[in-house]
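Anyone up for a design puzzle?
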């Protein structure tokens, strides 16, 4: 019997073209489908925000940084240098979808849509995105989760860290997210980005607790 392998092997070999395409089919398209499905539910959302945030200015020139994540996500399977990188990205994305979309359904959220004066091509693009997608699916920010996962593909590593920080800040400066949306994603990202590490820590803690418990 032929075994269906959904994940790339955990090694340093270069991903094959079909493995890169499989990432698009098994990760990006399901994510897009779930996002569109959730958006069309039109669930009334709660704005998780600090009181001062509605008075923050919008900096439209940061919109290209915010929107660059779409191109990077599509290019990700070709940016990945090894099958291990692609495997890790796939697992993180699947875990994020399994966790975050149910949060959107059970605890709907909304994002800000503060007034924006359309004056140039940058603000037109940002205005188009704001009008195309409802201000939902905000808490936690999937935008931030994606950039944290994708940043691990960058070499050198500091370049990925700088890019992740820039996109994360742009979520606020473009008025597309509230600060708590961003903070929630930053808090849960390590558990989704390093599930093996978390599993090992939990297992070690469990084994340690069993050793110290008195035997009857």
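Challenge accepted. My sequence:
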């Amino acid at each position: 019997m032929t075994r269906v392998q959904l994940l790339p092997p955990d090694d340093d070999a270069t991903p094959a073209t079909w493995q890169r395409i499989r990432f698009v089919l098994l990760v990006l398209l399901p994510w897009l489908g779930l996002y569109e499905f959730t958006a069309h539910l039109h669930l009334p959302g709660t704005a998780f925000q600090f009181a001062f945030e509605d008075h923050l200015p919008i900096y439209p020139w940061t919109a290209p940084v915010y929107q660059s994540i779409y191109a990077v996500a599509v290019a990700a399977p070709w940016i990945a240098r090894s099958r291990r990188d692609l495997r890790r990205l796939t697992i993180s994305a699947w875990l994020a979808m399994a966790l975050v979309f149910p949060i959107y359904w059970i605890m709907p959220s909304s994002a800000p849509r503060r007034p924006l004066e359309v004056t140039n091509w940058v603000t037109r693009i940002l205005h188009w995105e704001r009008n195309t997608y409802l201000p939902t699916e905000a808490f936690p920010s999937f935008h931030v989760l994606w950039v944290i996962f994708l940043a691990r593909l960058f070499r050198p590593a500091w370049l990925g860290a700088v890019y992740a920080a820039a996109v994360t800040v742009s979520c606020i400066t473009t008025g597309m997210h509230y600060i708590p949306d961003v903070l929630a994603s930053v808090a849960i990202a390590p558990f989704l980005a390093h599930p093996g590490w978390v599993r090992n820590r939990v297992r070690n803690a469990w084994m340690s607790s069993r050793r110290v418990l008195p035997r009857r």
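A detail worth pointing out: DSSP finds eight helices and two strands in the chain.
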